[in-house]
Amino acid sequence: MQTVTLNNGVTMPILGFGVYQIPAERTEQAVSEALATGYRLLDTAAAYGNEKAVGHAIKNSGIPREELFVTTKLWVQDAPAQDNTRRALEASLAKLGLDHVDLYLMHQPYGDVYGQWRAMETANREGLARAIGVANFHPDRLLDLVLNNEIAPAVDQIETHPFFQRGPDHDLMREQGVQHQSWGGFAEGKNDLFTHPVLSGIGTAHGKSVAQVVLRWLIQRSIVTIPKSVDPGRMAQNFDVFDFALTDDQMTRIAALDTGKTLFFDHHDPEMVAWLSKRRLDG
Hints:
Order of helices and strands: EEEHEHEHEHEHEHEHHEHHH
Number of domains: 1
Number of helices: 11
Shape: globular
CATH architecture: Alpha-Beta Barrel
Oligomer: single chain
Strand content: 5-15%
Distance between the termini: 37 Å
CATH topology: TIM Barrel
Largest sheet: 8 strands, parallel
């Protein structure tokens, strides 16, 4: 498996398995099948409601803990965020059945961001999280966090797919030593992604599916990606992307698909900010 090295020296697989929107009752089986396929990076979150199922799959897999890279995420916390963040991390670890995670991400750029980050820095120093980072941070918020804290985020996980390629974000992350990670790599099929003529044509040229082309495009941009599926055949297909490479011309043709706009929701939209900021997880 190809890996990336984070800014604190921790290595992370460039391809993993995400469990967003997989119901808790189906998550354990899906993760077990993903691990059997060969995935070693698992990405969950407190907000997904399936950490416990991910933990059961890890425990029953028999795979040594040091071979796995487990990510979970902190939801928006009220002040005093430092106390709340510690409790939230301990709750996530208990559900996962782990004594540490490999990456702990601040899920949204809202609430007491600095209080949350200070608590995450403490968790990193104590070994409860081998690396810490953020999700859904735009360049201005990310740079502010980088410049004004002792520990810079190791990762920023953001919406990234052929129709929203995040060029400026990607450039800033490279400049600041932050690893770009994609969520929504397949754009949930929007804009007819899986039948798009450009992507389909490139897939035909390589004998690969559109999904494999998209994953290969992300990997060649050095972006960590976490495709989700509950179908073992698709899991295996998504994992089989290291035996071909896109040409410069093909990368350029995909680059031309960028609209520069989200296909999901805008973190600068006041209504979305209000909804995410007010949402609280049970317990």
